[in-house]
Automatic annotation (TrEMBL):
The keyword Hydrolase applies. GO terms for molecular function: hydrolase activity. Residues 400-482 form the Non-reducing end beta-L-arabinofuranosidase-like GH127 middle domain. Residues 5-387 form the Non-reducing end beta-L-arabinofuranosidase-like GH127 catalytic domain. This is Glycoside hydrolase family 127 protein. It comes from the Bacteria. Keywords: Hydrolase.
Length: 595
């Protein structure tokens, strides 16, 4: 559905979207100017600032503005587009970091140069504008850049790919909005070329940019997490538009293996700090969880494409998990600070960065106002701006499928639905039919896999899909009740880093313990959870039963088995992981050792 067909209404996600569309937009533009990423358009070679990919932050911000479509930002949008357009070369080339006297030559560093990656974000911004507004200046710039890419990297051109996938999904999206088959063919060429060692080997190995093996042969997502999910997204786009079922199944197979073996409880991905990459199977250490916010965004991009292609509710389950536990975690309540990485175990209280600080490290211990690599903030902004589009779909039979539950209005064709819910705090979802055609149609609801108890209008429904086919009339109401209550979750024994631990989930939300909720002087590492005691809701927190084991420093932290605990039981309050570090510095852990 288009963004004109689905509107968020006040609730969990509308609050966050509103903050993004106001405070975060202003914050981002302020920092794009201040850090120099915007000033690079029009700057001298000597005056250029930032990393090789900084142009892309401007494009992602433009995409966020385009999806939001807020008239209040229209002048600013045009002013930025004018600065970008002024730098585009006559042949369509556009990058502030290459190609001018005194700079490296165009496409002389495909491994790290990010030129095609930047075009990808420029083109996605153009597509967002075309879909929400129509053809205007930004779309013209994007089309010229895309034509330049096809001219330069076509069958007779440079026979290589970009070190960071992103141009692939962008070109297919541009094909969809323009109908120009050339962009689809170029995207397919990029997808097929990669994996044949077309890029130079690098310190992290070619798997880092997925140039180690053809995508059709890969078993699992690997290498740099954001690169991996962006490439897979583009491959699904190519597969769907060309009817390539083999390619589609190759990506779906990798997605299933990645979810089964390389994904954190939160839905986040990436456990290697060194190269922001996937670890091997089951390498998911909580205190080294990298879980880049952008990898969460990319994971949603991929799962969304697979959902559209196959309709399997498992894809929407993962989107929900990432939304509530990665996307909702990163931004501060006021929309001006962000997590780049998302650890699941904070061993020492962090230090709040000053409001005017550009933090050089991705692994900031607390949310920071801006990073030297500023990818996550603009990625979040474009995701929040387009969030409504992920809630529901329609199909060729005129049916509507609801994938995510949050207050919203849907108006698609003759069908109008209003959705009300306190989800995820409460599991009741009320769907009111506002308008409906004279004929029967099917309303399909996703029943999350965690919802082992659920009813639709009082009738039990199993996890998966629940479909209702009938002739609806205005005023009809359906009530979905998902049993949202806290539960203990245990890891596969092969995830060694958390073996013997348990976590608490409530509906789609992962919980955590912060030291702020413990008696003074205790750290989260002193807590042992009693796995036989049921967690319970109380005053907005989840209460678990456990024991306190103050650690004793020894000269050697290994030895014979510890004596059984005789400590008294205590009640320990947990809060949603996405709320962590909002009350100030603390230690935190999601996985708690069991007694
Ligand atoms: Zn990022």
């Amino acid at each position: 559905m288009g963004l004109h067909e689905v509107t968020l209404r006040p609730g969990f996600w509308q609050r966050r979207q509103h903050t993004s569309r106001t405070a975060s937009f202003d914050h981002i533009e302020h920092w794009l100017e201040r850090a120099g990423w915007l000033g690079n358009f029009g700057a001298t070679v000597e005056g250029r600032r930032g990393r090789e990919f900084s142009d892309s932050e401007v494009y992602k911000y433009l995409e966020a503005l385009a999806w939001a479509g807020d008239p209040a930002y229209e002048d600013r949008f045009h002013a930025i587009v004018a600065r970008v357009a002024a730098v585009q070369q006559p042949d369509g080339y556009l990058n502030t970091n290459f190609g001018r006297p005194g700079q490296a030559a165009r496409y002389s560093d495909l491994e790290w140069g990010h030129e095609l990656y930047c075009y990808g974000h420029l083109i996605q911004a153009g597509v967002a504008r075309a879909r929400t507004h129509g053809h205007d200046d930004l779309v013209t710039v994007a089309v010229r850049a895309a034509d330049h890419v096809c001219d330069t990297f076509g069958p007779d051109g440079i026979g290589s790919v970009c070190g960071h996938a992103e141009i692939e999904p962008a070109l297919v999206e541009l094909y969809r909005v323009t109908g120009n088959r050339r962009y689809l063919d170029q995207a397919r060429l990029f997808v097929e070329r990669r994996g044949r060692q077309v890029l130079d080997d690098i310190e992290f190995g070619r798997a880092y940019f997925q140039d180690d093996m053809p995508i059709r042969e890969a078993r699992v997502l690997r290498g740099h997490a954001v690169r991996a999910v962006y490439l897979a997204s583009g491959a699904v786009d190519v597969a769907v538009e060309t009817g390539d079922t083999e390619l589609l199944e190759a990506v779906a197979r990798q997605w299933r293996a990645t979810v089964a073996r390389r994904t954190y409880l939160t839905g986040g991905i990436g456990s290697r700090h060194q190269d922001e990459a996937f670890g091997d199977d089951f390498v998911l250490p909580p205190d080294r969880a990298y879980q880049e916010t952008c990898a969460g965004v990319g994971s949603i991009m991929l799962a969304w494409r697979l959902l559209l292609a196959e309709g399997n509710p498992r894809y929407a389950d993962l989107i929900e998990r990432v939304l509530f536990n990665v996307i909702a975690t990163s931004p501060s309540d006021d929309g001006t600070r962000f997590f780049y990485t998302n650890t699941l175990h904070q061993r020492v209280p962090g230090i709040e960065p000053a409001a005017d600080t550009l933090v050089p490290r991705a692994a900031s211990s607390l949310r920071a106002p801006w990073y030297a690599v500023s990818c996550c903030m603009t990625n979040l902004a474009r995701t929040f701006s387009s969030l409504a589009a992920y809630l529901a779909t329609t199909d060729d039979d005129g049916g509507v499928q609801l994938h995510q539950y949050t207050p919203a209005s849907i108006r698609v064709g003759d069908i109008g639905l209003d959705i009300d819910t306190e989800y995820p705090a409460d599991g009741r979802v009320t769907i009111r039919v506002v308008s409906a055609p004279e004929t029967a149609w099917t309303l399909t609801l996703r029943i999350p896999h965690w919802a082992t108890e659920a009813t639709l209008d009082g009738v039990p429904v199993a996890p998966g899909l629940a479909a209702v086919r009938r002739r609806f009339t205005a005023g009809d109401t359906l009530v979905l009740d998902l049993a949202v209550r806290p539960r203990l979750t245990f890891p596969d024994a092969r995830i060694d880093a958390v073996r013997g631990n348990a976590a608490v989930e409530r509906g789609p939300v992962v919980y955590c313990l912060e030291s702020l909720d413990l008696p003074p002087g205790l750290t989260v590492d002193t807590v042992r959870l009693d796995p036989a005691a049921e967690p319970v809701d109380r005053d907005g927190a989840v209460i678990v039963t456990g024991h306190i084991h103050p650690g004793h420093d020894t000269s050697w932290p290994y030895g014979p088995p510890p004596a059984p605990s005789l400590a008294d039981s205590v009640e320990i309050p947990l809060h949603p992981y996405h709320r962590w570090a909002r009350r100030g510095p603390s230690t935190m852990r999601v996985w708690l050792p069991t007694t």
